[in-house]
Amino acid sequence: MGFRAANFAPDGQSPQARVGTIPNGDYVVEITECNFVPVKNMDTISRESVQYLVECGDEDAKNGVVGVGDPSINLFTKFRVLEGKHSGYEILNWSLYLHSKPTALRIGREKMAIMGFACGQPDWDSPAELVGKVLMLETQIRSSEQYGDKTNVKQFKQAPPGSTQAATPAKMDNDDDVPF
Predict the structure, then answer these.
(1) Cα separation of 153 and 103, whole Å?
(2) Quick check: 117 and 4 in contact, CB under 8 A?
(3) Are the CB atoms for 119 and 130 separated by under 8 Å?
(4) Nearest to 40 by CA among 78, 1, 73
(5) What residue segments make up the domains of the chain, in order of their start?
(6) End-to-end CA distance of the chain
(7) Which residue from 74, 73, 64, 68 is spatially nearest to 48, judged by alpha carbons?
(8) How far is residue 114's CA from residue 134's CA, in Å, rounded to a whole number?
(9) Cβ-contact 153, 138 below 8 angstroms
(10) Cα angle vertex 153, ends 16, 95, to 5°?
(11) What is the 3-state secondary structure (H, E, C) of 109-136?
(12) In terms of C-beta density within 10 A (0-12 exposed, 13-18 middle, 19 or more buried), how is residue 21 classed?
């Protein structure tokens, strides 16, 4: 499944992953994991959502790859903080990619468009293409009696020039041709 953003645009600490909340603020991050996951409530795509996607120019909806009754899915993204005293912390984010409600679908797709522009990869055919991209997140602590405090992504921004570069090595092709 591909995504085209233009269709939806509106400190020396261990790099090992650490979890927990971090203070509200802006953090330079690297995308370390990105993939599709099913929504928890077993929601399915509605006719209105398919129509919305077709009107926005979504190729999968226009070509029948996505249709009424297909399961709703989220785009799950894991970010690792690259700089500062919270370096190594992980921030998790879910955005609705396919959903029965067009408004929820629109909000999820708009968030993905902003994230894509912020990390320099507005168009992609697989979420794996976003792994290793660097951007800045504005975060905000969200409190919940049921689930406790959670670090939420409030906004995606471009990383400032000169920010730490991604530590994830580029993926190598498994090409059998010897380059010499």
Answers:
(1) 19
(2) no
(3) yes
(4) 73
(5) 3-157
(6) 36
(7) 68
(8) 13
(9) yes
(10) 100
(11) HHHHHHHHHHCCCCEECCHHHHCCCEEE
(12) middle
Taking a C-beta distance cutoff of 8 angstroms, is the pair 10, 66 a contact?
no
Position 74 pLDDT exceeds 50:
yes
Q: Which of 40, 44, 15, 42 is nearest to 29 (CA)?
A: 15
- The pLDDT of residue 18 is 65
Per-residue tokens: 38? 């099913």
Residue-level pLDDT at 2:
74
Q: Residue type at 22? A: I
Q: Say what the pTM is.
A: 0.80
CA distance 45 to 55: 15
DSSP state of 6: G
